[in-house]
Amino acid sequence: MAFPAIALAFLPLLLTLLIRYRFYFALFYRAVLVRLWKDCVTGLSREERAYQYVLTHATPGDPDSILDTFDEWCSKVEYISNIGPKKGKILDRLLMEQSPLTVLELGTHCGYSTVRMARALPLGARIYSVEMDQRNAAIAEKIIRLAGFDDDTVELIVNPSDEVIPRLRSDFGLERLDLVFMDHWKKCYCADLQMLEGSGLLGKGSIILADNVLFPGAPKFLRHIRKSGLYDWKVHRATLEYSKGIRDGMAELVYQGIK
Ligand SMILES: C[S@@+](CC[C@H](N)C(=O)[O-])C[C@H]1O[C@@H](n2cnc3c(N)ncnc32)[C@H](O)[C@@H]1O
């Protein structure tokens, strides 16, 4: 007798929570439950499923078609945390304005943002894209080559960022980074940024664009840029890729060095 009464008393609270956090539940459903279910049913990883879809629906050699097909898959079929079309436009605009020659990407995943950047780069520019997961890197390699970009435009480096950054000078002959796109695990943002500062590869005017600084969030990174005084910076407000109602932001930093 007491149990139904207690359950009834909690019903309004439960409903309030469901309504308030509906976008997060929807994300959990799409990103976790659907993924687990499809992993079991197909025997393929989510990244392999995305690649199969792109391969069968996009036009090879046409980066726009590859990005559009990815966006379609991520909005209608399954969720993958590509930068997506809305936040992608912030990246597009920066590339148009800055025409960077040397770009470092941390977190390639399936290569969506890599293709997005590669299609907007000036002639002779090069992206060094770092991915620590070998299976993701294998998919990214296929996507990047399918889009028509060769090794001269995109060099994929399969290793964790904290092992790659200290070797960018010695192993890859880099002298300056014009643009860094950070989109790997958020807990690495702060340490990797500090490592980049120490590497001497950031010069006055080097740009760092960091995704997801509000969701899942990178508070330590934001504290560091606020306190260090090394940057002019702002946060572009946006919503999480392929989701409604979850607020996110991209931090755009311009390195000024010690003033
Ligand atoms: C959010 S996804 C990147 C999405 C991609 N930038 C895009 O928009 O298409 C994050 C990726 O970063 C990789 N990653 C996470 N931490 C890393 C690290 N410390 N070094 C290299 N790759 C990392 C993960 O394996 C994952 O594939």
UniProtKB/TrEMBL annotation:
> What GO biological process, any one, is recorded here?
methylation
Q: Which GO terms describe its cellular component?
A: basolateral plasma membrane; endoplasmic reticulum; Golgi apparatus
Q: Which UniProt keywords apply?
A: Catecholamine metabolism, Endoplasmic reticulum, Hearing, Methyltransferase, Neurotransmitter degradation, S-adenosyl-L-methionine, Transferase
Q: Which Gene3D superfamilies match?
A: Vaccinia Virus protein VP39 (3.40.50.150)
Database matches in InterPro entries:
SAM-dependent_MTases_sf, SAM_O-MeTrfase
For the protein in the UniProt heading, the enzyme class is: transferase
This entry's Enzyme Commission designation comes to: 2.1.1.6
**Which reaction is catalysed here?**
a catechol + S-adenosyl-L-methionine = a guaiacol + S-adenosyl-L-homocysteine + H(+)
Q: Which GO terms describe its molecular function?
A: catechol O-methyltransferase activity
Q: Highest taxon of the source?
A: Eukaryota
- Give compartment(s): Endoplasmic reticulum
Kindly indicate whether the keyword Coiled coil belongs to this entry. no
Could you say which protein family the record assigns here? Belongs to the class I-like SAM-binding methyltransferase superfamily. Cation-dependent O-methyltransferase family.
This chain's protein is named catechol O-methyltransferase
> What organism is recorded for this protein?
Hippocampus comes
Q: Give the organism's phylogenetic lineage.
A: Eukaryota, Metazoa, Chordata, Craniata, Vertebrata
